[in-house]
Structure formats: C-alpha cells, structure tokens
Amino acid sequence: MRLLAIACTLSASLLAQQLPNTLTKEEKKLGWTLLFDGKSMKGWTKAGADAWAVEDGCLKSLANPKIREDLLSSGTFGDFVLTFEWKVAPGANSGVKYKIQDSALIDAAQLPNPKMPFEQQVAYELEHHSARLDKVKTGSGAQVYPVAFEYQVIDNQRHPDALHSPLSRAASLYRMAAATKDATKPVGEFNQGKIVVRGKHVEHWLNGVKVVDTDLDTAEVRKHIEERWAAGHPVRELLEKMPKQITPIALQHHNDVAWFRNIKIHRLAPPN
Q1: 185 close to 163: Cβ distance less than 8 angstroms
Q2: Which residues lie below 8 Å from residue 7, measured CB to CB, with a gap of 6+?
Q3: d(CA 170, CA 249)
C-alpha cells in the first residue's frame, strides 16, 4: 500500500508539471497567447530552411545558413509581457528583439565598397535597399539586419562579446544597459527569460531575477546608442525616435545554434 501511495503521489506530481509549449488554464483565463506550438513554424514568418528548424519542441537556429535571418512573429505587439525559455550551444550568441523599426539586407558583395565598416553598410542599405536576395551567394555572410532593441542571449563564460563587455552579457539590453547580475544556468540548460515593455520602459528578467530596469530614452541608453551610431545615421534616428511602437517579436539568428521554447505573450493595456 505504501508503494502504491508513493506511486500515486509521483504520478500526481508529474501531472502537475506543465507540459512545454502549452498554456495553463490560468494563463488562458488571463489572456496569454502561445507564440510557438512546439511542432511547427505557425505564427512565425518564413525564414530560410537552412536557418531555422523545429526540433525536440524548440525553435532552433542553425549555424552557417546561406542568409542569416531572424525569425519574426506574425503578430505585432505594443506593450506586453513576453516569457520564454532559451539555451545556447557552447560559445553561442543569439537574442530576442522587440520594437523593430526597420530592416535591411546586408551583403558586402552587393555594396559599392565591400570593405566599408558594418555600420556604414547598414546605413547604405537602409537608405537605398538595393541588395537583392536572389543575388546572395552561398558563403557571402549575408544577413537581414533589423533595427531593434535586444534581450541578449549568450554564453557568458565563452563568447568573446560577453567576456569583453557587461553590456553584451545574457539578459542585458544589448550594448545599451548591462544586466546587473549573471543569473544564467550552465550552458546546455534552459534559462527562463522575461521581457516587460510599457511604452519606453522595459524590464529584462533572467531565471526569476530582474536584471534590467530602464527607459529606452534615458541618458545612459542614448549615450550607448550614440557611441556606436554616428550623428545622422539612420539607426540612431530610428532607435531614438522610435516611430514604430507596435511591431513583431524576433528571435535572432547570430550564425550560432540556439534553442527557444515556451514562448508566451500577454498584451498590456496602454497606460492612462
């Protein structure tokens, strides 16, 4: 009888655990939306078949695709709470982007000067949009670059960006506001991420710890934007003026392997 009681308790415990990529009754009642069903790309815009795959209940970025292309949600969002789970391969880099203002295909081979710095490449294509997908050659390193704010997803212990600057560590507002704590789990384990957006105010959470709490127009954020993007650069203009407030969510493709699952969003009513 005791063994039976233990077995029943274990069964009840297992049943109580939420299955990945599902909503609880309470989440449904509160109006949460599941952005990934765990088995298909439904709800996401089409990207190259060699760039993204569905594997073991995850959206997985694949290394070395013909074109690096972020995966964008079909839906658009203004103020929201987004929760998700993520993990990366050793040494890998990725991210979750929001408030996407514009995008451009960057292919050095199609530029007037293939050796111009990356920031100049982005400026040229945002102004001209001259690069064409059908002209991209395998191995060119071409990418679709979105102008957006980013929740950094990265291996803090191995990736050079994370080792070089706190602004590039996991859950930071990438290159704009550093995470206050390294709350990551060991590489290979899933981390719980959360992004809260209310107007220009954002919070980044990592494994239950709030590590970023800032406004997108603070002096600190603007300082870091202006350190990278020169005066008059279209990216600086877009990030500082933010003309688009309702945009898709994007999972970043950084030419590395990363996994995302349990992606859920709750729309927030705009402030009075």
Answers
A1: no
A2: none
A3: 18
Cα-flanking dihedrals φ and ψ of residue 21, to 5°? 60, 40
pLDDT in tens, 1-31: 443 343 344 344 444 467 999 999 999 999 9
Q: Could you give the C-alpha distances from 247 to 32, 77, 229, in angstroms and in order? A: 18, 5, 22
pTM of the predicted structure, to 2 decimals: 0.93
| 224, amino acid identity | H
Tokens in use for 223? 């300082």
Kindly report the length of the chain: 272
Q: What is the pLDDT of residues 152-193, one digit of tens each?
A: 999 999 999 999 999 999 999 999 999 999 999 999 999 999
Q: Which long-range contacts (CB under 8 A, 24 or more apart) does 235-244 make?
A: 235/119, 235/122, 235/123, 235/126, 235/147, 238/101, 238/102, 238/147, 239/101, 239/147, 239/149, 242/99, 242/101, 242/200, 242/216, 243/101, 244/99, 244/100, 244/101
The neighbour count for residue 139, using CB atoms within 10 Å, is 9
Which residue's structure tokens are 């960006």? 161
